[in-house]
Amino acid sequence: MTTRFLQNALFGAVLCLSSATRAQTQLAPVEGDLSVHNFHFKSGEVLPDLRLHYATFGKPRRNASGQVTNAVLILHGTGGSWQQFTGANFAGVLFGPGQLLDAGRYFIILPDAIGHGGSSKPSDGLHAKFPHYDYQDMVAAQHKLLTNGLGVNHLRLVAGTSMGCMHSWVWMETYPEFMDAGLPLACLPVQIAGRNRMMRKMIMDSIRSDPEWSGGEYKTQPPGLRTALYMLLIMGSSPLQMQKQYPTRDQADSFLDEFVKSRMASTDANDLLYQVDSSRNYDPSSQLDEIKAHVRYINSADDLINPPELKVAEREIKKVKYGKFVLLPITDQTRGHGTHTLPSIWKDNLEQLLKESER
Questions:
Q1: H helices, E strands: number in the chain
Q2: pLDDT at 359
Q3: What are the distances in angstroms from CA 328 to CA 74, 259, 325, 339, 340?
Q4: Residue 336 and residue 325 in contact, taking contact as beta carbons nearer than 8 Å
Q5: Average pLDDT in the 199-220 region?
Q6: Three-state SS for 167?
Q7: Most buried one in 19, 27, 34, 52, CB count within 10 A?
């Protein structure tokens, strides 16, 4: 499976195959874990020991008052992990010497969200007894990671892709004094409804309604996971690029077979169920006017999850005092929803945002 397609296929889940599948930059990340004891979830559930995994590039710098001045938080998509930002198409465009987020200048923080990557998740053993986390829980945990684990008391920038895009809105509203700038990529700052909600419900229903799911105590992955993966593929793909890359029936069939085989081997049904369900009560629309950061909000016109004809982004960005929305046109370079992880297309907007938000 090619890296080129991974940026085209799913809303974060597919973007996070192991780092062995993509070219790595020469930057060396530092990985770590923070253990949070008795983490309380909004649902009322408590996890005695919540593990938060993360990776960092660079080192923090502080001003005379002790405030960190160079921290950048980048948040991954549904089903993803910090590794989706380490390849040549992302880190190789942004983190290198002289680049916009040069790791020699910035302290780049890449956390694995609750339920993802190396952080605590249902497949660790609790299965369907794992606490039912939501986006606010995930952001609260990220805040603990920064403040308690890494000693970061301020962000130069918070950015996120897909689910991470939605997390960035939650971050900017919940901690409005914490960051100078925000870069949400590929989402909408409103409740998930319409077709987006229906697609997510189809994914969850296909898992829960499968008799072999067994209330989350399956011995092998339930067949309903295959249906969920079909829906993910449709949600995250770009019709134009899929037609170009697989222009014949046999090529399309071959790719689909390979895709399902690979994803069935690397996806856990409980993990995916929880990941999708965590968006259930997301709705930042009522507090957008409380955001104090400078915001450059970017979607792509070929994003089937956040289609431009809804005109939601243009309406909602008017509530953000220092906000600007950018709709990227469809080109040979865009990759549908996965355009969010191709900074070569949108880095000029990041450069402008960093200049506008300088103190």
A1: 11, 8
A2: 79
A3: 20, 28, 10, 9, 10
A4: no
A5: 97
A6: helix
A7: 52
